[in-house]
Design a protein that fits this description.
With 124 residues, this protein is mostly helical. It is built from 4 helices and no strands. Helix 1 packs antiparallel against helix 4, helix 2 packs antiparallel against helix 3 and helix 3 crosses helix 4.
């Protein structure tokens, strides 16, 4: 469920990136924005399988940082963002993505708590 909601979050992130484009003197193109965020999110989503082995789960963070690098490189290519606005656009995009993923995590946690209930001995 977390994975599916994360993919939906990436698509929502693409729409938001498209809406933010004019604020950063970038081209507004919905398809290009979704392509950009899909390429940027792919390393982190694929590396998520590494959570199975806690000893190497830190590699997920490295993959996510590589995704940010892809986003940085893709802004001028996909969104035609000028050089002077690229860092600001990237920072705003990171904040937006964090907010989206916090909401996805909250939804997942709420649903899972409803399905499995609290741990034994925990009184809510």
């Amino acid at each position: 469920m977390q994975y599916v909601l994360s993919i939906i979050g990436v698509i929502i992130f693409g729409y938001i990136m498209n809406m933010l484009a004019p604020s950063f003197s970038s081209k507004q193109d919905e398809i290009q924005a979704i392509k950009l965020v899909a390429y940027a999110a792919t390393p982190g989503l694929l590396a998520g399988i590494l959570y199975i082995l806690p000893s190497i789960s830190f590699l997920v963070l490295l993959a996510a940082l590589y995704g940010l690098y892809i986003l940085y490189l893709g802004l001028p290519v996909f969104m035609e963002t000028p050089e002077d606005k690229r860092i600001i656009y990237l920072v705003v995009a990171i904040v937006v993505y964090i907010i989206i993923m916090v909401v996805v995590g909250a939804i997942t946690s709420t649903v899972m708590w409803r399905i499995i209930g609290p741990y034994p001995g925990v009184h809510i």
